[in-house]
Amino acid sequence: MNGPGFPDRFGNNDVIPHFAKNGTALTQEERTAIAKRKGLCVVCGLKTHTISVFKKAPLTNDHIHKGICIKCNPTSVPAAVLQAYEHRNPRVNAPVVARVSRPTQPNQSAANRAKKNIRQPPTAPPSDVRSSNSSAVPPDMREAASSSSLAANKSKRLNNEVPPSQQQSFSSPVKAASSKKMGYTQQKKSSRGGISAPPLNNSNNNNNDNVKSNYNESFSSMDDMSAGAGQRPSRAIIEDYTGSVNSPDEVDIDSLLQTIKDDRGDPELLKQTLHRLRNFGFDRDPRGAMSEIRDLMDQYLNEPRIMAMACGALWRLAAGQENRKIEAAENGAIESIVDALRKDQNMEDPEFIQWAVGCLASLADAQEVKAYVAKIGGIEAVVDALNRHQDSPGVFEWAARALHNLCYQKPDEDDIGDLIAKNIVSIEETKGIAAMVGAMKLHSSEATAQRWAMRLLWSLQDQEDDAANARVLKKMKDDGFIKAAVKVLRHRSTDSETDLFRLSAEIMCNILVSDRSDAAFRDASDCLATIARSLKEDNAEDSIKHKVKQESCCRVIATLMNGTDYSRMLVAEANGVHAVLEAIEKSPDNLMLTQTGIWAFWSMSASDRDRDDIFLVKAAQTLCESMESQVQTFPDLLLPVCGFYGNMCLIHGTNGADIPIVSIVRALLTEEDGLILREADRAVSNFCLAFPDQVDVVVDAFDLTHLQQVLQSSSDLTPTLCGVIASVAAKNDRARSRMASPDMIASVLQKLRDPDDQGMTKCYLELLATLVISGNHKSTRMPEDIVQVVLRVIKTTGSRDIQWTCCALLRNLLASAASPPDVNGLVDCMISLVDSHGTQETLKSQACSVLWSLTAKYLKQDGNSLSEMSRCMINILIKYKGDQGPFDYDLLAMAAGALASVTACMIHNPVHVSSEDVDEIISVPYTALDFEADRTELYVRILDSIYNLSYVSDAVLIQCGVIVVVIDTMAEFEQCLEVQQFGCAILAVLASTENLQVNLSIVQTDGIDMIVNALALFCDDGVVQSQACKALSHLSIDEESRMLIASLGGLMLLGNTMRANMDKLDLLEGALSAVLSLSADADVELLIESNIVAVVVSVMRHHRAVSQIQEFGMGVLQNISMRCFESKQTIAEVGGIVAVTDCIREFMGSPTVLERAFTTLWSLAVLDQNQSLIAEADGINLVVNGMMTAITYEGVQKQGCGCLCTLSSDSRNKGLIQNVGGVDSIVYAMWAHFAAEEIQVEACRALSSLAVDAQTNEVMIASDGEVNAIISAMRRFPVSERLQEHACVALRNFLLSADNVDIIKSNEQEVKTLVQQAGSRFPEACQERANQVLANLG
Question: CA 909 to CA 302: how far, in whole Å?
Answer without folding.
Answer: 50
